[in-house]
């Protein structure tokens, strides 16, 4: 009798442990990317580590416009712990020079999937599994108009966080920060000039058309929710 009871208790404990392990693995799968992004960013801040795009000689630099550079406020440098360690800037190699985005400040580096319908769940789910999505009808980097890129899923709660990982730290961008776009082997630097919180029903940022090259980045706010949208806009440097 005691032996049978022991086996039952053992079976229950084993099943409980299995359920806990599965739950932890599931949480790690869903929250792992954003936890890693947050931890890396905070570590870089503490140590004063900066990141910069690896300037591959195969990437062409577009000509600077004769209208002059966009002048925006820059963050004032602050002494970091890493300055005492003499840590060299770390380079970021773009995952795609054909169509990609790199945000040095938050260590974001992704392929851009073009012509994505944001109202078509199948379309944007497939795109966000590969990187970030450029809305159908967007202009391409360097051309006047609205290049609208998003990294945010609304098809299922467990995807809201996982697909948002690339732009999870977008809230850390400030006026004057740089966003680097790559398109057909060319590099285009955009400078942040605006950051706003918008309602999900506010489509003005998507519909806006500009007479200069503007990059619009969208993600969810607060991160991992459907409450609002964080919109960051940047202008092509030197246009």
UniProtKB/TrEMBL annotation:
What is the top-level taxon of the source organism? Bacteria
**Keyword Hydrolase attached:** yes
Q: Does the keyword Hydrolase apply?
A: yes
| Assigned keywords, A-Z | Hydrolase
Q: Tell me which positions the record assigns to the signal sequence.
A: none
Annotated GO molecular function terms are: hydrolase activity
Question: Per its record, how is this protein called by name?
Answer: Sortase
The source organism is Candidatus Daviesbacteria bacterium RIFCSPHIGHO2_02_FULL_43_12
């Amino acid at each position: 009798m005691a032996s049978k009871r022991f086996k039952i208790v053992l079976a229950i404990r084993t099943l409980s442990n299995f359920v806990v392990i599965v739950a932890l693995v599931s949480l790690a799968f869903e929250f792992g990317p954003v936890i890693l992004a947050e931890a890396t960013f905070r570590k870089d801040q503490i140590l004063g580590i900066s990141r910069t795009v690896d300037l591959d000689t195969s990437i062409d630099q577009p000509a600077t416009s004769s209208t002059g550079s966009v002048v925006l406020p820059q963050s004032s440098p602050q002494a970091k712990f890493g300055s005492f360690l003499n840590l060299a800037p770390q380079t970021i190699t773009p995952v795609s020079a054909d169509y990609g985005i790199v945000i040095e400040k938050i260590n974001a580096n992704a392929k851009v999937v073009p012509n994505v319908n944001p109202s078509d769940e199948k379309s944007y789910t497939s795109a966000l599994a590969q990187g970030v999505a450029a809305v159908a009808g967007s202009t391409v980097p360097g051309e006047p108009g609205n290049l609208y890129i998003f990294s945010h899923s609304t098809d299922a709660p467990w995807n809201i966080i996982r697909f948002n990982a690339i732009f999870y730290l977008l809230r850390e961008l400030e006026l004057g920060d740089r966003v680097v776009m790559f398109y057909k082997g060319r590099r285009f630097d955009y400078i942040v000039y605006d950051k706003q919180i918008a309602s999900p029903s506010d489509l003005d940022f998507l519909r806006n058309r500009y007479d200069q090259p503007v990059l619009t980045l969208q993600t969810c706010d607060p991160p991992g929710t459907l409450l609002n949208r964080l919109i960051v806009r940047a202008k092509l440097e030197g246009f």
